[in-house]
Amino acid sequence: MTLSHDVLIVGGGGAGLRAAIAVAEDDPRLTVAIVSKVYPMRSHTVSAEGGAAAVIRPDDSLDEHAYDTISGGDWLCAQDAVEVFVKEAPEELLRLEHWGCPWSREPDGRVAVRPFGGMKRMRTWFAADKTGFHLLHTLFQTSLRYERIARYDEWYVTRLLVDDGRVAGVVAVELMSGRIEAITAKAVILCTGGCGQIYPFTTNAAIKTGDGMGLAYRAGAPLKDMEFVQYHPTGLPFTGILITEAARAEGGWLINKDGYRYLQDYDLGTPSPTPVLRSMELGPRDRLSQAFVQEVEKGRTVDTPYGPIVHLDLRHLGETVIDARLPFVRELCRSYENIDPVRELIPVRPVVHYMMGGVHTDIYGSTPLEGLFAAGEVACVSINGANRLGSNSLPELLVFGARAGRAAASFASGVQGAGTSVRPAVRAQVEDERRRLERDLLQRDGGKEPISAIREEMRATMEEGAGIYRSGSSLAKAADRLSVLQERFRSVRLEDRSRTFNTELLAALELSFMLDVAESIVHCALRREESRGAHQRVDFPARDDHRFLANSLVYRDADGSRRVEYPPVTITRWPPGERVYGR
Ligand SMILES: Cc1cc2nc3c(=O)[nH]c(=O)nc-3n(C[C@H](O)[C@H](O)[C@H](O)COP(=O)(O)OP(=O)(O)OC[C@H]3O[C@@H](n4cnc5c(N)ncnc54)[C@H](O)[C@@H]3O)c2cc1C
């Protein structure tokens, strides 16, 4: 039996569910399925805390949201994509309300909004500090209304099938049984999320291993702007658990070991000429993370067993505000640090949070590989440029999840013939993949490299070589170390040969994707000889619009070699200028 659907979505997080609903609504004749390595409600979207940005107040405008996004992204954003994004974001958030999302309210009944880093106006909608949970729950329940949305929960996609230059489906492992199956489709939408697990300290769940980026890259689709990796300035030091930016939006301070609000000593971009909101703690994330490194260098941070830290001080907000607006922050601090932020300081450090880069798409979610679409954090439509503003990612996955769903539906309707007939070229790929998984990984004797050793070294390599600050020599060294790790991965050792929930096999497959994605980050970072947004080169400290007002597109060619191209950034109405942030 061949498993087959018109549109197949890889990923059951916010982007995947939104895309599935869009397909189901668009054309009732189409069959659609979601494959997800975890049960959809366990996707990382569930952990988003702070909120979702969209213009709603009369004193705000779409142009201002667009400008904040573009300037926050250090002029690397595709401006046509940003214009679509800011226009459709309010529509999507309202639609979510109609589907049941309990947005927090003002006493007069209006949707409540809070300030957020880099946004000059208050436009971040929230559901207390559990926005992602409510958003994902709303989408999941809405998806259940459509019987036509089939689900493969706890199936792991290992490869994209490509037939004559067009995507034909995927190969996936059912984790419970270990069976390896082809699932064919006329269109595939990747919604697999980000890849924070490539780094040692991250807010990202253990499942965020860049699988979708690896899948697309191996199939010949280019990855865009991979050198831009966002650090969030306030993670808990050991676990990397996020203390949401909402804590600073509500008035929290960052202080160094002398109790001093050190951000006043740093250039965080030009403060907004219209002093609408907020303090220096709401400067852009990249600048705040860079200021932390400089505090370390000045010896003004606190040493701990998990490296240097600074403190986030919420004490002056008082228990009532903390309990009403930041209950989850209090819960996390109590559970993971055994401290109460009402009375004590929270230890924090920058941790990897988000990938600006990803699979290259246009504003319809299409990639250059025919029939392949992408949306959400795995994709790079390019609304985030060189630095994403907090609370833009949830509306992004709604806007572009829906767009990719509609575009994939229309593509699939135009494809002739049943997707069930598997052509010989595709069958050969399926057999090839079965061999790789069964023989090369599961049944091979003599492997000597433990997965965890390679993984730890990869993470250390990325933090040292491609962290908050990079240089030509740190990146070149990282590139060399990664190619050695790739070589070592060839003799990786698997001890578990069972079929049922073989998590060791899963860890090996995830590591292999992470190594490919890590290499793409390092190579793009090495070639970009300038500093822009989250990409700070100590050897090229200035932004260089002359050479690099361009997105990077990295391809892996059939012979395994890498190629990077630099198409110019799409500029519509906002010529490059200085970065400005709300104050
Ligand atoms: C702690 C935290 C807090 C955040 N807070 C905010 C916030 O307040 N506001 C905001 O705008 N953004 C926030 N973000 C960012 C935002 O939440 C994410 O970028 C977004 O939720 C990603 O959604 P997604 O649908 O693209 O991917 P995810 O929700 O990560 O879902 C990925 C899906 O892909 C599936 N998958 C992956 N690989 C495979 C494979 N090989 N085979 C099968 N399935 C696969 C997974 O099972 C999962 O279902 C936060 C992020 C984190 C980590």
From TrEMBL:
PANTHER family found in the cross-reference section: FUMARATE REDUCTASE FLAVOPROTEIN SUBUNIT, SUCCINATE DEHYDROGENASE 2 FLAVOPROTEIN SUBUNIT
One GO molecular-function entry: steroid dehydrogenase activity, acting on the CH-CH group of donors
Family in the record: Belongs to the FAD-dependent oxidoreductase 2 family. FRD/SDH subfamily.
Residue intervals of the Fumarate reductase/succinate dehydrogenase flavoprotein-like C-terminal domain: 455-581
Listed Pfam families: FAD_binding_2, Succ_DH_flav_C
Keywords assigned: Cell membrane, Electron transport, FAD, Flavoprotein, Membrane, Nucleotide-binding, Oxidoreductase, Transport
Keyword Translocase: no
InterPro entries found in the cross-reference section: FAD-dep_OxRdtase_2_FAD-bd (IPR003953), FAD/NAD-bd_sf (IPR036188), FRD_SDH_FAD_BS (IPR003952), Fum_R/Succ_DH_flav-like_C_sf (IPR037099), Fum_Rdtase/Succ_DH_flav-like_C (IPR015939), Fum_red_fp (IPR005884), SdhA/FrdA/AprA (IPR030664), Succ_DH/fumarate_Rdtase_cat_sf (IPR027477)
Domain of life, source organism: Bacteria
Catalytic residues identified in the record: R285
NCBIfam families in the record: fum_red_Fp, PRK09231.1, sdhA_frdA_Gneg
Requisite cofactors: FAD
Membrane topology of this protein: Peripheral membrane protein
UniProt-recorded name of the protein: Fumarate reductase flavoprotein subunit
Residues of the FAD-dependent oxidoreductase 2 FAD-binding domain: 6-394
GO cellular component: plasma membrane
Lineage: Bacteria, Bacillati, Actinomycetota, Actinomycetes, Streptosporangiales
Catalysed reaction, written as an equation: a menaquinone + succinate = a menaquinol + fumarate; a quinone + succinate = fumarate + a quinol
Residue sites binding FAD per the record: 11-16, 36-51, 211, 377, 388, 393-394
Assembly, per entry: Part of an enzyme complex containing four subunits: a flavoprotein (FrdA), an iron-sulfur protein (FrdB), and two hydrophobic anchor proteins (FrdC and FrdD).
Statement: the UniProt record of this protein carries the keyword Disulfide bond: no
Gene: frdA
EC number(s) recorded for this UniProt protein: 1.3.5.1
UniProt-listed GO biological process terms: anaerobic respiration; electron transport chain
